[in-house]
Amino acid sequence: MTKVFLPQPLYTYQQAMLRAVEQVRREGTIAGLQPCSVQMPFRIPSDAVSSQPCLAGLLQPPRIEMLPDIEKRNGQIDGLLQFWTWGEFGPLNVSVNLRDAQGNLIESDYALPNPEFMNHWAYIIELEAADFTSLTVQGIVTDRLGGMSMQTVTLLLEA
Predict the structure, then answer these.
(1) Residue 94 has what pLDDT?
(2) Hey, where are the domains in the chain?
């Protein structure tokens, strides 16, 4: 178990947010707050799992976008996965899971941050292809406060 010491202002804020979330879960609204409509300046992928709370003051999770470049040749799967992340508290890490067509985990590890570009991450794939017909790639970004978002892409592999 890891112990984390929070400064008093952050702990007080966390407790207030916890009470507000519990109130919303019980009652469905927070007294005195009007729902807002969130206009995002960027496109959120339809297959990305993310939440968009519409109440002012609630923490937004980080965002992730993936660009896969994968080839199957000579009995191997080679490629580069690029991830772009953004969020209010900065991404802490990006984890990558690779699964076959049946959903079996093939590989799981962390993407490496690009030292030249902020919020850009890369993951290199080098696998024995066996008889894979598809590969499901899942990227999960975690921010410094524990917020998470995920994007999953299934790629069809040609021989």
Answers:
(1) 93
(2) 8-33, 63-156
